Amino acid sequence: MAIEMLYESDGSLAPLQEKTIATLGFGSQGHAHTLNARESGLNVIVANRRDSDNGRLAIEQGFEPMSVEDAVKQADMILVTLPDEVQPEVYEKSIAPNLRAGQTLAFTHGFNVHFGTIKPPADVNVIMIAPKGPGHLVRSEYQKGGGVPTLIAVHQDATGDAKDIALAWAIAIGGARAGVIVTNFKDECETDLFGEQTVLCGGLSAMIKAGFETLTEAGYPPEMAYFEVCHELKLIVDLIYQGGLGYMRYSISNTAEWGDLHVGPQIITPEVKANMKKALENIQSGEFARGWRAEYEAGMKNFKAKYEADRNHGVEVTGRKLRAMMPWLKAKTPPGE
């Protein structure tokens, strides 16, 4: 099925000019959307706790963070960039009671609308603008004069111009410079979750840990293991990013290419693909969403335990030590480390 691809020339900022847009949250996506849109000439306000790190960052950037309730009352469009797990509670308590007919409720991910944990009234637009990259990349690419490819979708068109509004926001944040794909909440949500779980985050993390364990358990120094299964990964991914698998294979040695073509399928076996299919089924059925919701409501004990276990994994301990010896990397550490 052919997709609809849009660019800056296919729309304009007009649907959002002379309007007030409220960004709920000033985190990764929130700060990028807000700053990019402001620099594109739109009027953006921010809802965030003033005494938080993100609230202080918003103040440093010249905003006056306010409550969600006040932001929703003032806004023509409300962009929800809060974490998926907290959105339903904030929606019921602070957003829904203050919505009025004709407003636009926008999301950067389809999770809660698609799985029904947020059910907007019929008299508001419900749209999605989802850059295919983390917020800091959305910001940095915009500042370079480029953008991150972006998905837009309309779940509910109460005013007749919801798609135009979504495209206008994609233009404002720089996404239309790279290209905008028109999709729907279901496809965005399910493919995004699948990619995160099986390849980009879950699958990749598990592969790195398994490779590190295999080498160190065989007696190889952990430093060498780290470089081979983790550090060099960026070099390979950059080649794929630039030119796909073919360009990556062109750029590596024949020995490495044969190892890729011959041994790779022995690692990612039909059984692994079957597990991927099962993960997709769990996403499609809502089982994953229900499980994640239950985990959050129970205090995220399993989440925290798994995170802590990985934080102390050998590949992480070794990596922290080695990155500290390479100041040119400008190594990053998550809060609390």
Secondary structure elements and their pairing?
Layout lengths: L3 E3 L13 E5 L3 H12 L3 E5 L5 H8 L7 H7 L2 E4 L6 H9 L8 E4 L3 H4 L10 E7 L3 H9 L6 E7 L5 H11 L2 H4 L1 E4 L1 H16 L1 H16 L4 H10 L1 H19 L2 H14 L2 H16 L1 H11 L3 H11 L2 H11 L13
Parallel strand pairs: 2-3, 2-4, 4-5, 5-6, 7-8
Antiparallel strand pairs: 1-8, 6-7
Structure summary:
This protein has 337 residues and is an alpha/beta fold.
Average predicted local confidence, pLDDT: 96
Radius of gyration, CA atoms, in whole angstroms = 22 Å
**Per DSSP, what share of the residues sits in E-state strands of 2 or more residues?**
5-15%
* Major β-sheet annotation: 8 strands, mixed
Uncertain runs are none
N-end to C-end Cα span: 46 Å
**Fraction in helix:** 55-70%
Describe this protein's structure.
With 337 residues, the protein is α/β, with parallel strands linked by helices. It is 56% helix and 12% strand. Helix 11 packs across helix 17. It is globular and about 65 Å long.
Distinctive features:
eight-stranded mixed β-sheet, 337 residues, 17 helices, single chain, alpha/beta, 56% helix
